[in-house]
Amino acid sequence: MGRTIVQWAVCLSACAVAFAQSPVGSIRGYVKDPSGASIPNVTVEAKSEATNVIQKGTTDATGYFQFLRVAPGAYEVTAQAQGFRKLAVHDVQVLVDQIISLDLKLEVGQVAEVLEITGGVASTIEPEKISTGNAMDQQLVQNLPMANRRFNDLAILTPGVTFAPSGTQAGGFAAAGARAQSTNWTIDGTNALDPQVNGPLNSFRIAEAVQELSVTTTAPSAEFGRQNGAQVNVVTKSGTNQLHGTAFWFVRNDKLQATDFFINKLNGRKPILRRNQYGVTAGGPLMIPKLYDGRNRTFWFYSWEGLKLRNPQVLTAIVPTAAERATVRDPAARALVNLWPLPTDTNAAAGAQNFAGAGNNAQDDNTHLMRFDHAFSDKNRLMGRYIWFGGTTTNVGLLPNYGNRNTPGSQTLTVTDTHMWSPSFLTEVRAGYSRNKTRFLPEDNGVNAAAILPGAPGLVDGTQNLLNSGLPGIVMTGYTSLGAATNLPQGRITNTYELFLNNTKIAPFGFSRHTLKFGYNGRRDETIRFLNGNARGSATFESFEKFAGLCSTCGGRSLLQQSTIRTGDTMAHWYRYPHSLYVQDDIRLTQSLTLNVGLRWEYFSAAIEKNNRGTNFVEGYGPMLVGTNQILDLDPTKRGREAFRFRQAPFTLSRSGTDTNKNNFGPVFGFAYSPKDGPWLLGDGKTVIRGGFRLGYDDIFNNLPVNQSLNGPWTLTTTQTAGTTQPAVGYGWDLAFNQDVPLVARTTQGPGAPAVGLLTFNAYDPDAPTSYGYSWNLGVQRQISNGSMIDISYIGSGGRKLGVFLDPNQPNVIVNNPSFRGVQRPNEQVFPYPLWSSVFMGSFQATSSYHGLVVAGRMRFRGSLNMQPPGPGATRSTTRRASSAPTTIWARPTSSAWTWTAATAGTTSGTGS
User: How far apart are CA 796 and CA 170, in angstroms?
Assistant: First the structure.
């Protein structure tokens, strides 16, 4: 076999590529003569119409050419050969993650004669792609209305995609039956996930700077990894040879909005809303007068977007009346009762809302983006992009002054170097860094609770510990709670360092029908977190009488029903080093049939705490300190921290508290068949039959292992309860936050009275497997006209070993008398670990299944109306999903999306629904 190499060069625009998550497309096709015979050795060029940078190639023995990693944008593709007229096709639109099929037919004539095709070429079908998904171009991204200008919300227009269930920690969306935390996000090829929850970094406001966005829902190729679900690629704009810019101001105001249906029904009043988003963008060639002309070589782009949001909220509450306040006898309660606002409705009935006030949700932030592209030569390109976000947020609470404040900050840096070693071998090296910071403080941070409640030892002295200062949470039956949320303060900093190495080899070892890709991705995830929930304490009262000291057994002092306090340092520094390798081969068996085979290996390194500050729960032994053989035990005769004891296990627990799997191999297989010859619809090259299958793995989210630092002995959270650790009638402020208490409620075992501990644990299965899943598709694409197509696909997925929380200390019931149900005497309740309470263990035992039928249509008109350029089109999906993990069940049996944009006389506008 003769060795055939397709020669090509990498243009400046292609420097935005990413190996493991490539924000690029490709142009492929055949060059033929008027009779349909293939023409070898044809010179083919693809020139960016924005930068004039050219990629070059020649057709192989079958007339095939390919430009593999082409940055999104418009291109002019030319082909010329001796004895034929030169052919030039203008406005070939390339979208991210899209394979453009462009077959060229040359006419006999002189090379000096040029046949030009204008009017634009946008691929409606992709005859070599095995995965399902969607790509949205710049016109769609910028012109479709987005309520909050969150560009990532556009992903919901992809068939098979739905918003994540309410309360999902990762937010975002779920695709083709996978969990929201299984979706991987990249910006210019660098991961844009918050590793703490595996959710997208939603804080970046870069809608005006987005060039394109693509979503792959099933069977992505082996070069995509980290998560098993959808793969989302976001590509930012780069500068061009023309200086260009925009200025914008988007307003959402209650004066411009319709009244909510339910507000109308109740004759209510619209809530006040003042939302202003504004900014500028600019880009062009780098020009330094008399020193440097960067046209066709060096480009820059800048974007700034700011937000000012004011959203006042009406607060309604039940607060103690003036008459009730006058009856309070306990000194501590007297100091607290005046912290509730006074009633605004003095005629309200007892137990009814008697206070109405105003709180103001406010948000102010700014996002800056800067990007540079530079060509050192035709063989070496460089791209650098940096995004910075910072701001402040205030969220109201149940009462004025008891909400929370947050000072978020995020940034991400990407540098990509693309080098062509030979006409058939390309290497890309990318370094990435991202940082995410959150810090939630109670709105009353700085208040010294110890001074307000001097009779409650154990409360934080705000003059010595500003971070944990603030009022404890006060809960009183029949009244609105006082104080901020008990899970505050909390905050974290996450740092992710990444390195990508990607290689593309055309015609490896002389096999001209093969295109081989192989690469590596390594990263360091780092989490520095504190979660000081209950550090301010909380207290619960059965009634106002017991709070005020008015009950018959009170004796003029408050009697608490329950109280909680946490002590100890929750600050922890965790890190991990995941790695992955992949190899992928695209095989052109014939001009009509393409196979894609690949294999990906994922090593999801377990997280390690820098100073071994972690405790995991090991079944059969109990809580163990990570990195040691020490089992945490309790002496039931001791109280508080003095009850902690240690004994030795016959093994040493790893520093991570869990094992790491090394056998995460995921195969990929797919085909795309677009017959050129055959009956009716199968013989004109306008029909594609495709199918794909992939086994993929899910990386963990760091919240799970990091929670090991919240356990004893590093921190101690004690809860006093009347009737359990204190007398049933209640107890006073002097004992409320005193941790010199028993840590075991009952040490003896008896019918109806089991031995049970009081301390809970966060745990991570020490033998945890890696969650994985299958995704597959089988469908047909048909080009109806030059600018329209229809796609009918069956898509499916199955999840295995999915995460779910289980309690290994779930009690067993010994039935001594079948006449009595459950734990009623004389039946007995027995805990496997009687010294401890509940254990919230992240385990991996759940499964899921999903089946969907997706029908999508795309239509492109030319002329004064341009309706639905390449994008999601009109879609309809019918789906069914089931899961064995109840907290993750979600179902939307049917969903629809319809979008369109219109362009008239060169002016673009848009709308959609």
Answer: 22
